[in-house]
Amino acid sequence: MRKKLLFAILLILIAICIAPGTLVSQSGEEGPPVHECRVPADGAYLFAREVGKGLPIIILHGGPDFDQSYMLPEMDRLADRYRLIYYDQRGRGKSAAGVKPEDVTLASDVADIERVRQYFHLDKVTLLGHSWGTVLALEYVLKYPERVSHLIVMNPGPASRQGYVQLRKEWLENRADFVAQKKAIAETPAYKEGDPEAVTAYYRIHFKPAFARKENHEKLIARMHADFTKDGVLKARAIEDRLMQETWAKADFDLLPQLKTLKIPTLVISGDHEFIPASSAEHIAQAIPKARLVTLKDCGHFTYMECPVPVHNEIDALFSNSLAGRTQ
Questions:
Q1: Residues 15-59: pLDDT tens digits?
Q2: Could you give the CA distance from residue 52 to residue 141 in angstroms, rounded to a whole number?
Q3: Is 39 a domain residue?
Q4: What is the mean predicted confidence (pLDDT) over 229-248?
Q5: How confident is the model over 70-120, as pLDDT tens digits?
Q6: In a domain, 3, yes or no
């Protein structure tokens, strides 16, 4: 009887959000409470983090071999006006326990977004995808357009196979030295075995051209290094390979024609120091009828980190403009 009671308590703790702490701003002032929970998701428990009040925004991190930690604390600046819901995607970060790489597909990742929406009892939601997360956001909104009120596409990855080919072409033409350095690290036993030091060295090179300012590059790499573990790296890498095969590696992968059917207010954010071709953001903005493309100055691939105030202003404008449109 006692074991059953303990088990029941454990399930309750897993399923219900708790508030382990509060945000602290750079000035030292306390912010809104941060709630963490585990979302049941068909064989997995997705680690979720909720902060702020206001219009709900589900945030989809990039990778696809990363988790939400690289976005914090900078993205939390939006919590002063919005209810932010982050989660680690299946098999990555704190959502890795009990998940095998073969359990993760593009379909399961899209289904997990729907589970998160339902778990938090959201009728309609804003989706914010960063980098790879934009591909997931687009896949979800194409399947469930009636459940998305607004779409924020931040520093998007390519939405087509052609866009991915262009990305690789530009890297080979403009950053051949970086490509050679990354290849040399990737061929070492340490990298293949998931050694955190080797993996950090790889990403230090990979993300060097992704920033307008060097100090932000070092900040990201230190944050990622602290999060890397051998087992986590290997599992996330295997998942990345599987998701690549379902998207950018497929000859017929192309979301752009379907995006023309969307009627959702959309903001596409990019930076003038982006290391993904500008055409990736441009093609998405051109495809979605109600999309607005903003290219921020002195920003790279992590606009929320390098240009937090303009990012916040543009997101505010997205909601203000859509509300104004309804009253006209």
A1: 445 445 544 444 444 567 899 999 999 889 999 999 999 999 999
A2: 24
A3: yes
A4: 96
A5: 999 999 999 999 999 999 999 999 999 999 999 999 999 999 999 999 999
A6: no
Q: What is the CATH number of the domain that holds 277?
A: 3.40.50.1820
Instruction: Supply the pLDDT for residue 277.
Output: 95
Give the total number of structural domains in the chain: 1
Tell me, what's the pLDDT at 250? 96
According to DSSP, the residues that pair with 291 across neighbouring strands are 266
- pLDDT tens digits for range 133-175: 999 999 999 999 999 999 999 999 999 999 999 999 999 999 9
List Cα–Cα distances, 151 to 117, 135, 267, in angstroms.
Answer: 14, 12, 6
Query: Who has greater pLDDT, 180 or 327?
Result: 180
pLDDT at 5: 41
Specify the pTM.
0.90
Q: Which domain holds residue 216?
A: 23-327
Two tokens, residue 229: 């573990």
- Residue 17 forms part of a structural domain: no
Both tokens of 101, joined, read 């790489």
| Structure token digits, residue 37 | 């929970």
* CA distances, 81 to each of 51, 120, 173, 245, 316 (Å): 10, 18, 42, 38, 9
Q: Is 13 a member of any domain?
A: no
